[in-house]
Write a structure and sequence with these properties.
The longest helix is centred in the middle third of the chain and has 7 residues, at 65-71. By secondary structure, this protein is mainly beta. 12% of the residues lie in helices and 37% in strands. A hairpin with a 2-residue loop joins strand 1 and strand 2 (9-17). It has a 4-stranded antiparallel beta sheet with strand order 1-2-9-3. It has a 3-stranded antiparallel beta sheet with strand order 4-7-8, with no helix packed on it.
């Protein structure tokens, strides 16, 4: 696990084993759970770039992040300030204010999960 701050958002993360048949934890404000094995060893925090694509949870295909922002009615002036979390090979798994990516959700084969927490401002 660890902590980081990027663009005024504080992050913390921890790896947790998943027992066979264990109930999926519920996401809460400022907290998501993802399949740690699918994420890989490194995470990159950055801002949205033109052409970024993302497959929100529950969708069958990726969409342009620009289109997701429009659909979610995120003001244009705010879009470039939102934090994007991506794998080392630049697959986006989390976007501030949106759902996690479909391909990184917890599923039956998940054996290790990442507890991903964030909040605006510096750590206490």
């Amino acid at each position: 696990g660890g902590t980081a701050t990027f663009a005024g958002v504080s992050f913390s993360w921890a790896f947790e084993p998943v027992a066979r048949g264990e109930a999926r934890p519920r996401a809460a404000p400022g907290c998501e759970y993802l399949d740690a094995e699918l994420l890989g060893a490194r995470v990159r925090l950055r801002h949205w770039r033109a052409g970024d694509r993302f497959q929100p949870l529950g969708m069958t295909q990726a969409v342009k992040l620009q289109d997701a922002f429009v659909n979610e009615k995120i003001p244009r002036e705010r879009r470039h300030r939102l934090v994007v979390a991506a794998t080392a090979d630049d697959r986006i798994f989390w976007v501030e204010g949106l759902r996690i990516a479909e391909q990184f959700k917890l599923d039956k084969p998940t054996t290790r999960r990442l507890k991903w927490r964030w909040r605006q401002g510096s750590p206490e």
